[in-house]
Write a structure and sequence with these properties.
heterodimer; A: about 210 residues; mainly alpha; Cytochrome Bc1 Complex, Chain D, domain 2; 2 domains; 11 helices; about 50% helix; globular; disordered N terminus; B: about 325 residues; two-stranded antiparallel sheet; 13 helices
Chain lengths: ~210, ~325
Amino acid sequence: MKKIPILLTALGLSSCSAWVFAEADAERGAASAAMCMACHQADGGGMNIAGGESWPRLAGLSATYISKQLHDYKSGARSNASMIPFASMLDEQQIEDVAAYYASLPATQGKGSEGADEATLNRGQQLAERGDWSAYIVSCKSCHGPDSQGAGGDFPGISGQHAGYIEAQLQAWKAGNRKNDTQDLMGSIARRMSDDDIHAVAVWLASQSPAGN
Amino acid sequence: MIRTLSYAALSGTLLLSVNASAKDTTTQQYIDTLTELGYPAPKGNELVHIPPTMEDLESAKLHPELKRVIRRGYDLFTNTQQLRGENVFNNMNCSSCHLGEGRMPFSAPVWPAAVTLPNFRGKNDHVNNLEERIAGCFTYSMNGKPPEYGSDNMLAISAYHQWLAKGVAMYPEKPIYGRGFPAPDRPEELSYARGEAAFEEKCSVCHGNDGEGLRVGNETVFPATWGDMSNNWGAGIVRIFTAAGFIKNNMPLGQPNSLSDQESWDIAYYMSNQERPQDPRYTGDVAETLKNTEARFHKHSMYGQTRETDGHVLGDHSNTGEKPFLKPDSIRSRTFE
């Protein structure tokens, strides 16, 4: 008796896949990702650009997370002048493939913590690991998981991400320019962070080991 | 040295030491943040205490070995999963419910236990000390077996509690600001369907559609809200008013007081209608267990009640989850005779 629904489900899925889209394929994704490499680099490591727009590391991030961001660029839920034209070029299948491709790459080390002073790094570590409850800033790891290396498809790994990118995103949330997080979970915390705290946590996270999925 | 607002008000700035003044400033910072987030301000007669942090510990005048033990207690409190299979048999950490490392008002701060115990406790009908109170959390909330009284781990966890209470006089007479999870007024009607819908909308991104939570490796990121990996039926938070108080004051994480009173109670009611490991006080019969525990405890939960959606009698099973036994030795009466 128990096997019947499973069998029906399997038949249903296989017949659906013929006309929806095939499973994500990292190899196909590599071909579609050719246009991403100018900024996100051949190894998916992105680039920290002091004083400019940093390009995030995608290598080793959750495929679910990358896919959601690409969908959000296409729909306008997430806004970024550089990304919107590229995301718009990808169809559903290509989004899943590109996401699978970057998720499959080994995570590379972020930059932007070079030369940071000890007090800044200590404050950043405190915020990432314990938060600052005097301002009701919960720690990064409480959602982004152990060592802030990511938890599921909704909470990306931020350890080892470029400092410039993390800082820009937290500032965007704080200013209300980025709102594509579930239930404003990140926004409500970012709005309670000072500019110094945002800088400190970005720099500390960049100095930490990146996630590997 | 005690961080109380009344102390600040009575002492006058000229008499304050620099240290006490800094502490009062810190306390005021917390109060400002809390009131901005919709928590009530302290009433005039309340004891307000904001515990020291782990950063404060480093500069405290304590024996280095004591500091090491307090750090160990902090580590156990915030990563209780390191005791998995020994003392903990579900996905909980102490800090899963006691947010802000056990320091935050309205999130059942743990320092009051250090200054109000030993005291009589209705739940087990005898006088408990701090260790026995901590053992209660392990027995019910962690569905586990408490570390032995006097053991290194029990002492370390106790030391962390006492460190958090630093400066507070024993047996305070004033009511404590932000103690427990103060529940909002109970609405007239609670709804399973509304609770289920609200859980899916507001809670499931972290806690999952089936209340399973989320783990990464051997660490819990989001605790299970019911099921085998959650608290057992004897945990305080299975009482609907306790869960409603926790939810209203603390959830979603980072957005306290954002849910309505009705939503908080409906979600709590929905959660109390889900299964979880058996209450360690189980006698082998759910009706009898309910009778023994109803007045002191289960009149506030759905234990032994029939679920309206499918007629299932909640708690009518002998499932103890991952724990290979029902009742740890810590459950015993004391007569002091």
